[in-house]
């Protein structure tokens, strides 16, 4: 599957490109040091500007009270394209979050070269060069 390395399945995906308003379910496997099984994330594409910006959001990233927004931007530079992925995770004070999950998020945010991120960027680079 040509997706993020921890994605095990995509369900209810739209046919073709995910335009603004599209919804789907991503099944995610063990992340980092977490090995307690898969979990579902319901995503919504909130912005889709072909060739420039794509934004997806969820109100529940693994745990209730954990919101996530991912912004993908594409900028033409010379004969290529600069790809950028910005992920923002907001954890509500009252959220009952597994400390190990919070630790994985913190490690990923502080080290952009962690294995999962590096693997994801390799997948994206390969797909874009096709």
And the CATH topology? Alpha-D-Glucose-1,6-Bisphosphate, Chain A, domain 4
Would you identify the CATH architecture? 2-Layer Sandwich
Which word captures the global form?
globular
Helix and strand pattern: EEEEEEHH
What is the number of beta strands? 6
CATH class categorisation: Alpha Beta
What is the gyration radius calculated from CA atoms?
Answer: 15 Å
Mean residue pLDDT: 80
Percentage of residues assigned to helices: 10-25%
Describe, in plain words, how this protein is organized in 3D.
- This protein has a six-stranded antiparallel sheet, with no helix packed on it.
- The longest helix is centred in the last third of the chain and has 14 residues, at 115-128.
- It starts with 6 loop residues before the first strand and ends with a helix.
- The protein is of the alpha+beta class and 130 residues long.
- The chain has two helices and six strands; from the N terminus they run E-E-E-E-E-E-H-H.
- The relative contact order is 0.16.
- It has one domain (7-128): START domain (Alpha-D-Glucose-1,6-Bisphosphate, Chain A, domain 4).
- The protein is globular, with a radius of gyration of 15 Å.
Tags for this model:
130 residues; 40% strand; 6 strands; 6-stranded antiparallel β-sheet; Alpha-D-Glucose-1,6-Bisphosphate, Chain A, domain 4; 2 helices; alpha+beta
Topology:
Layout: E1 7-11, E2 23-28, E3 39-49, E4 53-58, E5 66-77, E6 80-91, H1 99-110, H2 115-128
Antiparallel strand pairs: 1-2, 2-3, 3-4, 4-5, 5-6
In summary, what is this structure?
The chain has 130 residues and is an alpha+beta fold. It has 2 helices and 6 strands, in the order E-E-E-E-E-E-H-H.
């Amino acid at each position: 599957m040509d997706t993020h390395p921890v994605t095990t399945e995509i369900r209810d995906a739209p046919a073709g490109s995910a335009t603004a308003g599209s919804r789907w379910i991503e099944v995610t496997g063990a992340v980092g040091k977490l090995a307690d099984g898969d979990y579902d994330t319901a995503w919504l594409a909130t912005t889709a500007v072909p060739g420039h910006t794509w934004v997806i959001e969820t109100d529940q990233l693994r745990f209730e009270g954990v919101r996530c927004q991912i912004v993908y931007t594409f900028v033409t530079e010379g004969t290529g394209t600069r790809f950028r992925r910005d992920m923002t995770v907001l954890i509500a004070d009252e959220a009952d979050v597994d400390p190990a999950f919070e630790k994985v998020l913190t490690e990923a945010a502080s080290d952009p070269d962690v294995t999962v991120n590096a693997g994801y960027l390799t997948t994206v680079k390969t797909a874009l060069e096709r």
